[in-house]
Write a structure and sequence with these properties.
Helix 3 runs antiparallel to helix 4. The chain has one domain: Penicillin V Acylase, Chain A (4-Layer Sandwich), CATH 3.60.60. It is 16% helix and 35% strand. It is built from five helices and 15 strands. It has an eight-stranded antiparallel β-sheet with strand order 1-2-15-14-13-4-3-12, covered by helices on one side. Strands 5-6-7-8-9-10-11 form a seven-stranded antiparallel β-sheet, with helices on one face. The chain is an alpha+beta fold and 304 residues long.
Length: 304
């Protein structure tokens, strides 16, 4: 456990703590050598619950897996050098992110929308939609209105943004902005709560964990680390072919060159404290997971 200071940033009254640990772990590897268009390669699955009552300790809980090619350069969870009030992982190719928070309590997350058809070759990175919200000061509603006006320039995406005023969702494949009501949600690579097998399985298994007054990180990580495949007749048909549909169907994806790179847990406490944990999986040259690195940050929200 160590103190962390980023470019002169001083921790709030409740100290910022980071723990980085490593433990051996072996995961089953699927022997497949396949490729997918790089512009659509990042796939993520998010599960989150927004609470309405005082029974639990939390206001918002989110659990997520990020799937990507293993060789795509990525910065693990940390405060960004160019914006030290933003905490999140970072795609070093586009400088965007898939999930991040700020010291003032803003949150943004994105998933790609998987569908049949050609992709825009020169479309801007969808991860920059996360970065732009975290850097900016627009309200979630105003920001999503802006995104809606330019959404046609991007390949398909789902975007979650929120702050103290609430949590909001927009997809350029649905074109409506929704305020998230209290309840449990699953979001993969189609519209919010689309009942894909992995989404339904994750919601079913996380429902009991999310109901606890205090949550165990390891229980959450074990749940979203499930590698079971659904029956073939339950697989969606998104135009990527049966082999990819099968590979992408578990909560935790693994293959020789592509799979779940990291798992994340984000907890917003009702006492205005945020905890962000990320577990990055370390693979050998055959794609097998042999170890992992865990980073955990906790801080009190600073009024903006």
């Amino acid at each position: 456990m160590a103190w962390i200071s980023h470019h002169g940033w001083k921790p709030p009254s409740a100290p910022l703590l980071a723990t980085i640990g490593s433990n051996p772990r072996v995961f089953r590897r699927v022997e497949r050598k396949i490729t997918i268009s790089d512009s659509s390669s990042t796939m993520s699955t998010f599960f989150f619950i927004l609470y309405s009552c005082s029974v639990t300790f939390y206001r918002l809980m989110l659990a997520a897996n990020r799937d990507e090619y293993y060789d795509r350069p990525t910065e693990p969870l940390g405060f960004w050098d160019d914006n030290p009030y933003i905490l999140g992982g970072r795609d070093l190719r586009s400088k965007g992110s898939w999930l991040g928070v700020t010291l003032s309590g803003r949150l943004a997350a994105v998933t790609n929308f998987r569908e049949r058809g050609s992709l825009k070759k020169n479309a801007p990175s969808r991860g920059l939609l996360v970065s732009a919200f975290l850097v900016g000061r627009k309200s979630p509603q105003d920001y999503l209105e802006l995104v809606r006006s330019i959404g046609h320039k991007y390949n398909g995406f789902n975007l979650l943004v929120g702050d103290h005023s609430g949590l909001f969702y927009y997809s350029n494949k649905g074109n409506n902005i929704y305020r998230i009501k209290y309840g449990l949600y699953g979001l993969s690579n189609h519209l919010l709560n689309t009942p894909w097998p992995k989404v339904e399985k994750g919601k079913d298994e996380l429902r009991n964990l999310f109901a606890k007054e205090k949550v165990s990180f390891e229980e959450l990580l074990d749940t979203i680390g499930n590698q079971e495949y659904p029956p073939d007749d339950q697989l969606p048909d998104t135009g990527v072919g049966h082999e990819w549909e099968k590979l992408l169907s578990p909560l935790f994806v693994t293959s020789e060159s592509y799979g779940t790179r990291s798992s994340s847990i984000v907890l917003f406490e009702k006492k205005k404290r945020i905890t962000f944990l990320e577990r990055n999986f370390i693979r050998d040259d055959k794609g097998e997971i042999r170890d992992y690195d865990t980073r955990k940050f906790s801080f009190s929200v600073i009024s903006s």
